[in-house]
Amino acid sequence: MEVFKREALATELATKILTVSPTSASSSGLFLAAPRRTGKSTFLREDLRPALENLGALVVYADLWEDRRADPGEVIVGAVRAELASHEGVIKRLARSAGMEKVAVGGMSFSLDRVGLGEGISLSAALAALSDDAGKPIVLVIDEAQQAIVSEKGNDALFALKAARDELNSSRHKGLRIVATGSNRDKLAMLRNSRDQAFYGAPLVNFPALDMAYVQWFCDRLDLGAKLDPAEVFELFKRAAFRPELLGAAADALRFEFGLPAGDIPARFAAAVEEQIAVSNTEQMRVVHSLTPLQSTVLRVMAVRGSNYAPFEAATMEAYDAVLKAIDPGADARVDVSNVQQALSALQDKALVWRAARGVYALEETGLASLMQQEGMLKPVPAA
Ligand SMILES: Nc1ncnc2c1ncn2[C@@H]1O[C@H](COP(=O)(O)OP(=O)(O)O)[C@@H](O)[C@H]1O
Ligand SMILES: [Mg+2]
After folding, report:
1. Which pLDDT belongs to residue 108?
2. What number is the average pLDDT over the span 240-244?
3. What separation in Å is there between the alpha carbon of 10 and the centre of ligand 1?
């Protein structure tokens, strides 16, 4: 599929990533945050990666959401192994350093399985060897990086990357930059809080949404039988929370309305975008409306407390009580630690709630809080 290119943005960002000023913390890596479905992954693949390569970097890309069942730690290790596989010289050197003088790479006397977390060859050694061999700095791009902290191995990978960063950014090597994206600022913030992890202190930057230039590009390509005014479409795009798919789906819907007078097309397009927004909202809220009163209660309190949410504190338990009484007055369900715990795991199973390995919770989708707010669902939650 053809996409709108964002070359200028990519070059600017790539330059910043690769330039290390002595006063900046950007050698700790960089976080790009933007809501889901607004074009982060597309930008990384189509624009940022080539821009980094043009500036002389070796890019290793790990998408922690590509396979939701895969352990995030394994995915990061897998991305490094995959890059190694195309550098035979590096494999030989690593094998030698692991004490295997005679290496038959094809004969598999050295297996890439030996590279990894707690394996013979650390991520740090592997990345250093890769960078030295290529004579280039490495940029490790981790898409949906918040997933790294949902598993122990993912956490281990972050520690390993911290070590790798320190090693590669020393004067002996060409450097390692880590660029991470995610859709939820609260979650990404958690990755920056731990002193011994790869992202400690890394700047968190709002990744810019697609802009008027994209809308212009979209309108130019559209073939609906009448021109749309980009300024009007941009307003619709804003209403759609900058999600290109909603514009695309609206255009698809119109394509099959036969015999539509040209003069009606702009208004019909606007209506079709509104329909798409409504469909997307209903879709998101469908699960929410199927929750038990207690699950709904826990979700509402979490939505209001945000990054201050402490699931089992006395004040939170009181908030649950108040909400449950308000939404389900007749019920005799009691709120206690064990049924809150159960509600939390049910919410996780329904992919509404995200849990870090250390027991910190957040809404899976930040946008859900505003939808619940719009429906008045958050009114019963007492102020903290
Ligand atoms: N630059 C672009 N040009 C055209 N379509 C885009 C562009 N960026 C994103 N899209 C479309 O928007 C949708 C979501 O993009 P994606 O990159 O997966 O978002 P995210 O990673 O932020 O969730 C995809 O269907 C993609 O094709
Ligand atoms: Mg993505």
Report:
1. 45
2. 96
3. 15
